[in-house]
Amino acid sequence: MTLLTGRLPIGWLQLAHSRTRLTAALAGVAFANILVFVQLGILGSLNDSTIAPYGLFEADIMISSVDANTLLDGSNVARVRLFQALAVPGVSDAAPLYIQNVEWSRPDGGTSTLQTVGLEPEAAAFIPSRLADVIPQLILPNTILLDSGTRGLAREALEGVTPSTPYRLELSGQTISAIGTVRIGGGFTADGSIYASDQTFLNLFQNRSSAAPNHILVNVDEGLDPDVVVARLQEALPTDVVKIGTKDDTAAADLAYQTTERPTGIIFGFGVIIGIIVGIVIVYQVLSTDVADHLREYATFKAMGYAQRFFLGIVLEEAVILAVLGFIPGVLISWGLYTGMAAATGLPLEMGIGRALSVLVGTILACVLSGVIATRRLAAADPADLF
Amino acid sequence: MARDMSQPTDVAIAVNGLDHHFGTGEARKQAIFDVNLQVERGKLTILMGPSGSGKTTVLTLMGCLREVEEGSVNLLGTELNGATEAQLVGLRRRLGFIFQAHNLHESLTATQNVLMGLQVHGPGDQRKQIAAAHHMLALVGLEDRLDYLPGSLSGGQKQRVAVARALVSNPDVIFADEPTAALDKDSGRTVVEMLKALGQERGTTTVMVTHDNRILELADRIVTLEEGRLVRDEFPRRQTLTSAAVKET
Ligand SMILES: Nc1ncnc2c1ncn2[C@@H]1O[C@H](COP(=O)(O)OP(=O)(O)O)[C@@H](O)[C@H]1O
Ligand SMILES: [Mg+2]
């Protein structure tokens, strides 16, 4: 190491010299990391659980009621819009999508809210390929796919479920057969999901009618830009009643609404900001304490003729070492917390590489910046005043 | 520079009309009053005076550790009043400092501390630098403590490491501020004798603050401060030399 840098690795020697001080500094950095990870995890789980239901169907474009902010909350869309859409050049296919929550009184006495998605089994173009094999079987009345990640549902309950050995459950006073599973998991508005045919859906929700689905899914001719068709649909349909957007745009708008306009999302966003601020304060405290602890030694070096960038070098060396070494326990403990929180809440909490890397890079930046600020004190002072 | 011309070449430090204040506003208080002093090259000059008389202040002003605000200090041909940070950094590299407290770096071994005195001049050849540090430590009698951390050295040993660190790069001027104050008699004596011997050998200019009477015998010149003013300037060696010469005749 000495030979590599051309000078003594003073930053490292300084850190290694006092184990208790190093441990305390690393604990501080790790704690800052955990704080940010937990807040990001909660916000991330809101994002993931918002987006997850969009994975239950395929579509290029969605037609929704103008008052719809999420998959569930808007008015219904008149089925006539489907036929109007089919008449627009470039539209290859269209299908109704039904969504509603149902309360399930579980055999163990608890209740789970299940978000039920109804889609015509024969609308193959709108069915995700991973479900293509099992969906046609949903033609049988009162058969569904049940979310294996449903909150409150014992993990092993759905093991070995097949069309011939279904899992039976009571919903809306009817006996329903789960003949297969999907994996969505609970979110902030529901505990799990159900995938059903339109007929089973309408049977479960007697107050709903095939004349008024929640959304209309639209596919465009191959090779055609969906945005072009969106524009045409906006011409052809009454935009005071329905809004039209690509599926990706609709999902993104849903996410933006959930995270910036709903109280939960705003609070979680604040949590992230507060977490980052507190994290930076902790890291700054760690670095500036370290500089203060070594002020006499730095003053001696300054008296010997070392220039400011030498001290910057030492502190940056320390900053990077602390950031990296503190990150390791930080990310491991956070990962454990994610696992525990996911098990306790059924929310999707995963330590993604992207998130881990951004927190690491953020930690290094915060440490380096804190180090630079902490050493400024040294620059202005006469060495004689530092002893 | 005109100032260089006017300054005799055997003068390492020329102090002219030096004042210094501490504090600001109402707390502002003058600590140094019109000090004039020319420190000769290659000599041991001792600063004496009661506690609080301004010895440390004068020493740190001459040694680029404190900004010169009023009056002039010319150190090795460079005016310190108004000097840039780069000039100060450059000058500090030509000085050796020994403080009352050893001020060694606690995380570095004796050898590494001495290396810091070399590496300030640039990275250089590691092996040669380590050899030079070991040689210097041997000169101060620490050849069997090369890889000790300061925490496991005695006070006298630590101060000897500090001497080695100050001398290892052959500085033009050594400043020592009560280097023996924290040491017992014997180790204090050893440290100063080493300083004196090594300095003389190398022709180093040494300015030392001390109260230690036994050290005064070694001085070429003794300057006394009182309440921030220079009150006495003696050349004891010349006198002893003269009186010795008188006795011989
Ligand atoms: N950093 C400082 N701030 C304010 N006053 C100081 C400071 N350093 C020294 N002084 C004052 O300046 C005077 C001279 O101090 P100093 O040079 O340390 O004396 P000595 O080294 O002779 O004991 C004293 O009155 C002391 O209180
Ligand atoms: Mg003093």
Quick overview:
The complex is a heterodimer of chains A (387) and B (249). Chain A has 11 helices and 9 strands.
What does this structure look like?
The complex is a heterodimer of chains A (387) and B (249). Chain A folds into two domains: 2-50 and 263-385, no CATH class; 67-238, no CATH class. Chain A is 49% helix and 17% strand. Chain A is built from eleven helices and nine strands. In chain A, strands 5-6-4-7-3-2-8-1-9 form a nine-stranded mixed sheet. Chain A is elongated and about 85 Å long. The two termini of chain A are 30 Å apart. Chain B is of the alpha/beta class. In chain B, 37% of the residues lie in helices and 25% in strands. Chain B has nine helices and ten strands. Chain B has helices at 2-6, 55-62, 85-92, 110-119, 126-139, 155-167, 185-202, 213-216, 236-248; strands at residues 11-22, 29-40, 44-48, 70-75, 78-79, 95-98, 173-177, 205-209, 221-226, 229-234. In chain B, the strands form two sheets. Chain B has a six-stranded mixed sheet with strand order 6-7-8-3-9-10, sandwiched between helices. A four-stranded antiparallel sheet of chain B has the order 2-1-4-5, with helices on one face. The interface between A and B is medium-sized, with 28 and 32 residues. The structure holds adenosine-5'-diphosphate (ADP) and magnesium ion (MG).
